[in-house]
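Thread: quick sanity check before group meeting

JM: Hey all, I'm pulling together slides for Thursday and realized we never actually wrote out the predicted structure for the chain we discussed last week. Dropping the sequence here so it's in one place. If anyone has concerns about the input, flag it before I start.
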Amino acid sequence: MEQKEIRSMLEAVASGDMDVDSAMLQLKTEPFEDLGYAKPDYHRAVRQGAAEVIYGAGKTPQQIRDITAALRDHGQKMVLITRMSREAADFVGETLPLRYDEMSRVGIVGEMLKPDGVGKIVVATGGTSDMPVAEEAALCAEALGNEVVRLYDVGVAGLHRLLSCREEIMTARVIIAIAGMEGALASVIGGMADCPVIAVPTSVGYGASFGGLSALLSMLNSCASGVSVVNIDNGFGAGYLASMINHL
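JM (edit): ok, ran it. Output follows.
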């Protein structure tokens, strides 16, 4: 059950359209269930405003399917699965209505939420090679009920490409800036925008980039105000945080 549903139920009780016992029955479900290998959190949406997301890496296809089924059985209309393998997607898709994106390795079971955020989230990348992380961020944000605008391959090696997108940058409510190599994109966007910028360093780059560490340190040392940083390749974390900001 989500926060909006609980609010509607309490309003119905207050107006006399629902009796107290019926409301209590809906609230009595256990907050989690012990499946032996996992404890699905059925009250995550009540506490945090967004339901539990499944991290697929390291889980077997059957574990992913069973956790997803348990969440759906307890009223979760949409289940988001990140870092999901093709093997797991094929297995889950046999019994559940799965939409799977090969590039981002994101799986979505059920209907995505309709956009109800305050504004739009812009997802920008330095290069095409950053798109797997960018699509993870974008799809997660869309699944959580946000309008997303994608600006791909607008890195500082050709600054005119980014400048041609000034309107999108300056009208965004949140921007996710994703880049590898030296990670300069976040600082440039941070100097153009009046909204929060979430920087995502990627592991794209040659040897001295140290698997994204160089971009991470550059972003952490950004001189642009309003830039925050999530972990290397953490598109999900950026998309989730952007959604929280856009729903404030």
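AS: nice. The first helix runs from residue 3 to 15. The chain has eleven helices and nine strands.
JM: adding both to the slides.
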